[in-house]
Write a structure and sequence with these properties.
By secondary structure, the chain is an alpha/beta fold. The protein has a single domain, classed as Nucleotidyltransferase, domain 5. The chain starts with a strand and ends with a helix.
Length: 143
């Protein structure tokens, strides 16, 4: 039986560009937390931080999924309409550095074992956990 996992990601930069952080919150279909993490990303733009947050979630899944011994339906939930539309190949990616990040993310998605995946947009209000983790990463780095 396939297991559904929801992956909430958020990235942000203070000053855009500026000190940036990523937040990732992962839960099962009952809403039980599987993982939560935050990462300081250095000096980035908001869009770079959003792509890097997705990338960090893929790195987690690359290590987590093989240990589970089952198939998964993954739903990535982002509050960046730009990244969602670009990752779903509905919008063109004009900036070279964002295109490089998108290509890395597509490659990582294709490499996930025994998975189907979707990337969906959610309003910021539905992404509060990942947002708080991204802000925590930026706050911790500025201390």
């Amino acid at each position: 039986m396939r297991k559904k996992i929801s992956i909430y990601t958020d990235g942000g930069a203070r000053g855009n560009p500026g000190p940036a952080g990523a937040g990732i919150y992962v839960c099962d279909e009952q809403g039980r937390e599987i993982s939560k993490t935050s990462h300081f990303l250095g000096h980035k733009t908001n869009n770079e931080a959003e792509y890097l947050a997705l990338q960090a979630s893929l790195e987690f899944l690359k290590n987590y999924l093989p240990k589970q011994g089952r198939e998964f339906d993954l739903i990535f939930l982002l509050d960046s309409k730009l990244v969602v539309e670009q990752m779903n190949k509905r919008w063109k990616i004009k900036e070279a550095r964002l295109l490089d990040l998108a290509k890395q993310n597509w490659q990582a998605l294709d490499a996930l074992p025994h998975c189907s995946w979707q990337i969906k947009y959610v309003p910021r209000e539905e992404n509060k956990r990942a947002d708080a983790l991204a802000n925590q990463a930026m706050d911790d780095a500025l201390v």
